[in-house]
Design a protein that fits this description.
alpha+beta; Alpha-Beta Plaits; 2 domains; five-stranded mixed sheet; three-stranded mixed sheet
């Protein structure tokens, strides 16, 4: 028996819950409703001003036939003059409130306008009883208020019921009882018509707002999904770094800037040494964790303008805008030491890493040449024992990117820490590391620029015939 009683109680309170839901939904439309009503008050005020002014002029020019008609004319002019003054004030107020956030003031103004229109309509209909038995003014204002303004149903019912109550008693001016009964019946019909129009307008408005909000919600969801898809298209899911597609676009933009006369850019590609052994020894989960840890480690050591992307597998690549070949080599050596000096915790195990680096320069022309050069430099670094930086300048005999625009004979080499000289003449550089660059014009410094840190240097030597 208990389930039946619960079901009956639920059915008993269901209409109340439904009415409460409708009430809350209508409350949620008040802001949009107030904005629309303010605009309509402005337009209605302009129309009312013209009509009232024309009515005052027309009745003022009419010559009354007797005292009764003169009294009627004076009352009609007074009603239109009052409505003219009030609508002028309402219109100006609505104009000022249109772009404000005073929703309560807008609602009060809307209630004042509708009440005024209904009151003036009743007044004119009562005054007209001196010369006619129709109640056309009251019917007109009921239709105007119901169709022109958005009124929530509860307020609309109260407004039209109150107006009919006033009309019911005001229309009784000692006329024939049958006429009074007919006018009251017609007044009730007029109020019902106004209320019906108001319900129809509110229902249409509610559906429109609901659809608009659904469209906005769908548009927002679509934009969110598009952002996620774009992020997936240009972001590596494992490391959170930009992927190859994003890097290619960044290189294309940088090439366009270089072709417009901007400075060249450096490209660094590095590969984690013996990464397959990490996967084999510690598992692929540990290898993935190593890749995830490398991303913030390197990202924190480069400039905001630099582009750091995952190239594929355990390979990473960097674009250094405005950085020459020597500056890129110095950056690569700094990153090499950074990776070598850090211990990565992966799946509970300490993993010590080293990396091999290839460095090339991005100049005007094809990005493919730069990719080939940096790949060749990285391959050379692996061939020479790994954990080292190799620099491949344009025109290097081993470069795959040799073109007619590149001066013949230029060459760059980078040696690992066990070499005879230092890559960067500073305390940070390991003893014995070295960078050499060969150019056709004899000894010069390639590193004499803001790209190279203080103390770092590069030696430039003329080609040795024996080495050729």
């Amino acid at each position: 028996m208990r389930p039946k009683s619960n079901k009956a109680a639920h059915a008993h309170f269901a209409p109340i819950a439904r009415l409460r839901a409708i009430f809350l939904e209508n409350n949620g439309l008040l802001r949009e409703c107030a904005t629309i009503n303010l605009n309509r008050i402005v337009y209605c005020a302009l129309v009312a001003l013209l009509i009232d002014l024309a009515s005052i002029i027309i009745f003022s020019l009419r010559t009354p036939d007797g005292a009764a008609e003169a009294f009627w004319r004076a009352e009609i002019i007074l009603c239109h003059a009052v409505l003219l003054a009030l609508m002028a004030g309402y219109g100006l107020t609505a104009w000022k409130l249109r772009h404000s956030e005073h929703i309560l003031a807008a609602r009060i103004l809307h209630l004042a306008v509708t009440s005024t229109l209904l009151s003036i309509g009743i007044a004119i209909a009562v005054v007209d009883q001196n010369v006619t038995t129709n109640i056309t003014p009251y019917l007109l204002v009921c239709m105007i208020v119901g169709a022109a303004f958005l009124i929530r149903p509860s307020l609309s019912a109260l407004l039209f019921a109150a107006s009919f109550a006033v009309f019911y008693f005001a229309i009784d001016r000692g006329a024939d009882p049958d006429i009074i009964l007919s006018n009251r019946s017609n007044g009730m019909a007029a109020a019902a018509i106004g209320f019906g129009l108001s319900l129809a307008m509110w229902g249409h408005f509610k559906v429109e707002i609901r659809q608009r909000r659904q469209i906005e919600a769908q548009r927002g969801e679509l934009e969110r999904v598009n952002r996620e898809l774009q992020n997936m298209a240009f972001t590596d899911s494992l490391t959170g770094l930009p992927n190859r597609r994003y890097f290619d676009q960044a290189v294309a933009r940088e090439l366009a800037a270089i072709e417009r006369g901007g400075p060249s850019a450096g490209v660094i590609e590095f590969d984690l040494d013996f990464f397959k052994e990490i996967n084999d020894k510690n598992g692929h989960a540990a290898g993935d964790e190593v890749l995830r840890r490398i991303a913030p480690l390197v990202s924190g050591a480069i400039r905001r303008a630099d582009v750091f992307a995952r190239y594929g597998g355990e390979e990473f690549i960097l674009l250094l805008p405005g950085t020459g070949l020597t500056g890129a080599a110095v950056t690569a050596e700094k990153l090499r030491k950074l990776i070598e000096s850090n211990v990565v915790l992966a799946d509970g195990s300490e993993v010590r890493l080293t990396a091999s680096f290839g460095v090339a320069e991005l100049n005007a022309g094809s990005a493919i040449n730069c990719y080939r050069s940096v790949d060749q430099a990285l391959y050379r670094a692996k061939q020479k024992g790994r954990n080292r930086v190799e620099v491949l300048a344009p025109g290097d005999p081993e470069s795959l990117a040799d073109t007619a625009e590149t001066p013949a004979g230029s060459r760059a080499e980078a040696f690992a820490p066990d070499g005879p000289e230092s890559l960067a003449d500073s305390a940070d550089a390991p003893t014995g590391s070295r960078t050499e660059a060969f150019a056709p014009d004899g000894p010069e410094f390639l590193a004499d620029s803001a790209d190279a840190p203080a103390g770092s240097r590069a030696e430039v030597l003329t080609p040795n015939p024996k080495s050729a």
